[in-house]
Structures are given as C-alpha cells and as structure tokens.
Input
Amino acid sequence: MLETKGIPTHFIDTSAPNEMRVCRVEILPLEVVVRNIAAGSLCKQTGIALGTIVNPPLVEFYYKNDDLGDPLLTRDRLLLMKLATGEQVDQLETAAREINEILKEFFSQCGITLVDFKLEFGTDKHQNLLLADEISPDTCRLWDNSETDPDARVMDKDRFRRDLGSVESAYQQVLKRVLAQKV
Ligand code: UDP
Output
C-alpha cells in the first residue's frame, strides 16, 4: 500500500503468512518514531499528559543500541556520530511524515487511532533509502475508536506490557480490520 503511494520500501512479496521476501538493505542503526498523540516515553520523559494531541506530529530519532538503552538523539548528535548524513536525516523525516499521513488515514478507516509508531530504514546497493523492517501492533500504538476506556482501547503491544490480557484477540481484531479495508 505504501509503495503504491510513492514510499519506496524493501518489501517484495509474502511467500507465506508468516514470511516476507525483502530486498537486502543495510539497516541504519536508528529508530524513527512518529507521534500523533502523547504516550509512552514522551509522557515519561516530559510530563506531557497521556492522550495529549501532538500537532504537528513529532518525528524523533533513537539510537539502536541496547548497551546505551536506545537513547533519544538530536539531529546534531546523529550527525556527530555519523549515523546518517544530513541529506538522509532530511529524507528520513520527510518519509516518516508522509508514511504517518498514509497510515493515519488508513487506520482511521479501520476505526483505529494511530497514536505513535516506530520505523526503520536501510540503504540498498544503489544507496537508495528504503523503508524496512515491519509495521505491526508490536511497533505501533493503536487505539480502538469504539472504546473510551483507556485500557479497553489498547490494541497493541501495551496489552502485553501492561498485562491487560486479550493480547491475541486484540491483534486478531487489528488484522481483521486491516484485511477488510480495501487498499
Ligand atoms: N517502539 C518500537 N520498538 C522500540 C521502541 C519503541 O517498536 O524498540 C515503538 C513503540 O511500540 C511505540 C513507539 O515506538 O509505538 C514509541 O515508543 P516510546 O518511545 O513511547 O517507547 P516505549 O515506552 O513504548 O518503549
């Protein structure tokens, strides 16, 4: 769906329900996080209240490094560490914002609010920047628009992390709605 809307990705096809063929890329050691609504580490680190609308959406970069605890990076730190070029940082931010608009609209048609999500990118052998990795309830915060209760609305990994139960049925509900949506 993203490819048809002009976002270059590493995706080729799905060879089985739990497999995908992808183009080989060199992954940038960055997590690109986009936020439409305050949750998770944004609330923890800033004191902004859970559920606050973030407008314009926030695009953040985190360093993928377990030993350092995946720290939040500034653009200057990212350049200092040579994790990406200035041109790549601009491309990443533009792509992240475009992907956000597409996914926000798509999930909205599924009756789901896209709260925040994480993307990863890589470069192919021609140095083209491609969206890589996966987009799933493991990498997104998704809230059910038909639920007002703050726990009942959670359809993502937070159900597991916060021990809310019904993890599988929530993921299946996301899948059902995504598949029902014509793209
Ligand atoms: N995220 C992810 N992998 C990570 C860190 C974050 O997929 O290693 C996703 C997370 O699921 C959420 C978004 O990125 O949708 C923002 O996460 P946040 O910074 O709030 O961190 P959290 O407190 O969720 O770990």
User: Anything to note?
Assistant: DSSP finds five helices and nine strands in the chain.
